[in-house]
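To: structure subgroup
Subject: Chain for Friday's discussion

All,

I'm putting the inputs and outputs inline so they're searchable in the archive.
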Amino acid sequence: MNHRIWRSMLYVPGNNPSMLQKCGFYGADAVILDLEDSVSEEEKKQARYLVDEALGSGVVSKSDVVVRINSFHSPFWKSDLEMVLSHQIAAVKIPKVQNTHEMKEICNLVLELERINNTPLGTTKIIPTIENAMGVMRLPEICEVGSERIPCISFGSEDFMTQTNISRSKLVIVKTQIVTVAKAFGKDVIDSVFPDFHDLEALRRECFEAKSIGISGKSAIHPDQIWVINEVFSPSSDEIKHAKKILELSKQNKDGAFQYNGQMIDKPIVERCRRILQLSGDKVE
């Protein structure tokens, strides 16, 4: 995996100049400048202009920058994409992806814009957001179509719950399905937002549940949520120490499995230790 693993991704309304100026200083691994749900139809054009200005001025420099454009079925997505790809960003986030036709059309336009902007071909990253039942069902094909461009899959719970009537407490079943497919293609998964930004303990519980099923990070709707998300999705000092020891021993035992503290250590365990150090920001050799 050659991209940064994002623990936290903070949504920033594209029509809020003040937030666009400050969003890079809240400590999120990435900020998502939003042109979709947080912006009314009447403000779409103005929000695109404000995000264009923010990206051009470089004010969002402390975090990786992702832009969520409008959905494929809106009249705005092409203009959004044209603006976004005139800048250097970490990724484009695509909402409500539900089939391969959408992914192919988006990937084709991205490739065309890379040529126009003299951007190295194939380097623009795309984050599909799964927000309905069809998106879950078609996720294997979606991953296959955009495989080289997709660093992670994002889950959008609010629209999904609205469509399916599945309660929040039962979403772990769906999330596990998404994780299983994503991991089959070597992709991370970013969990959906927790809407009550006052209840940090409930947020913490949801983060731990997500982490336990293989999710790598979580989106946030408020700066106060970031420290909780970062804390939960970061390895502990004991985990880091253990991982370093395992990797050190693995270099000395090149023939395969070895024993450490009464446990048999083999390749899958070594790879998990590598990921722990990658999450911690340590250099992994």
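Points worth raising on Friday:
The chain has a mean pLDDT of 92.
The radius of gyration is 19 Å.

D.
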